[in-house]
Design goal:
The complex is a heterodimer of chains A (110) and B (122).
Chain A lengths: L8 E4 L5 E6 L8 E6 L6 E4 L13 E6 L2 E6 L8 E9 L6 E4 L3 E5 L1
Chain B lengths: L2 E5 L2 E3 L5 E8 L8 E6 L5 E7 L6 E3 L7 E6 L4 E6 L8 E11 L2 E8 L3 E5 L2
Parallel strand pairs in B: 2-11
Antiparallel strand pairs in B: 1-3, 3-8, 4-5, 4-9, 5-6, 7-8, 9-10, 9-11
Classes of the chains: A mainly beta (110), B mainly beta (122).
Chain lengths: 110, 122
C-alpha cells in the first residue's frame, strides 16, 4: 500500500526555521495536506493542496512540493508551534482509493 | 462556525459492537464528504472510512472492511460509524472529520471533532 515517510523528530530554537519533509512516490501526482496536533487535542489543518494556507493559520506556516517530497516550513518558530505534524495524501492508483497519513514528526522548540 | 461533536465511545469487550455518532453544525452537512480517522494511544493518525455527500459511495481502510459501516443521516446532520467484531487493535480515539474536495476528488480533511475514545478490552 501507499506510504508517506516523515522524520520522527525535528528540533529548532525559537525564531529559527523548521522544515519537515514528507516523501512518497505518488506525491508528484497528488495533493498533500499537513496537520498540526498538540497533546490531547484534535488535529488542525495548517496546509492544504501542497501550499495553500487555511484562514486563521499564521503566515509563518508554508508548504512546498518538489518531486516526491513535500515540505512544511515554519518560519520564525514560536514555542506554541511545538506539536506533532502529519502529512497526508490520497492515492487513487489502486482498486479503491486510499487516504494515507505519514507517521508524524514531533517538532521540539528548544 | 463549523462544529463536529463525536459521541458513543467507551469500553467494549473483544468481539463486541459499538456505534459512534458525530453531530455536525455550522455548515451544510449534505454538501460534504465526511470521514472517520482514528489514533491509537501514542500512535499516529489512520484514516478509517469516508462517505460521499449523499451516501452513495463509501470507502474503508482494509483492516476494518466487513466489520465497520459508515453511514449518515443528512436530515439530522449526523455521521455514524457502526463497529462490529471489535478487536484490541481497534482501541483508539476516533475523530469525525469533514472532507476537503477539489476538482471532484476528496483530498484531505479540513475540520475535525475532538474525538471519542474506544477501548476494546476484556
Amino acid at each position: 500500500s501507499y506510504e508517506l515517510t516523515q522524520p520522527p523528530s525535528v528540533s529548532v530554537s525559537p525564531g529559527q526555521t523548521a522544515r519537515i519533509t514528507c516523501s512518497g512516490d505518488a506525491l508528484p501526482k497528488q495533493f498533500a495536506y499537513w496537520y498540526q496536533q498538540k497533546p490531547g487535542q484534535a488535529p488542525v489543518l495548517v496546509i492544504y493542496k501542497d501550499s495553500e494556507r487555511p484562514s486563521g493559520i499564521p503566515e509563518r506556516f508554508s508548504g512546498s512540493s518538489s518531486g516526491t517530497t513535500v515540505t512544511l516550513t515554519i518560519s520564525g518558530v514560536q514555542a506554541e508551534d511545538e506539536a506533532d505534524y502529519y502529512c497526508q495524501s490520497a492515492d487513487s492508483s489502486g482498486t479503491y482509493p486510499d487516504w494515507v497519513f505519514g507517521g508524524g514528526t514531533k517538532l521540539t522548540v528548544l | 462556525e463549523v462544529q463536529l461533536v463525536e459521541s458513543g465511545g467507551g469500553l467494549v469487550q473483544p468481539g463486541g459492537s459499538l456505534r459512534l455518532s458525530c453531530a455536525a453544525s455550522g455548515f451544510t452537512f449534505s454538501s460534504y464528504w465526511m470521514s472517520w480517522v482514528r489514533q491509537a494511544p501514542g500512535k499516529g493518525l489512520e484514516w478509517v472510512a469516508n462517505i460521499k455527500e449523499d451516501g452513495s459511495e463509501k470507502y474503508y481502510v482494509d483492516s476494518v472492511k466487513g466489520r465497520f459501516t459508515i453511514s449518515r443521516d443528512n436530515a439530522k446532520n449526523s455521521l455514524y460509524l457502526q463497529m462490529n467484531s471489535l478487536r484490541a487493535e481497534d482501541t483508539a480515539v476516533y475523530y469525525c472529520a469533514r472532507g476537503d474536495l477539489w476538482f471532484g476528488e476528496l483530498w484531505g480533511f479540513d475540520y475535525w471533532g475532538q474525538g471519542t475514545l474506544v477501548t476494546v478490552s476484556s
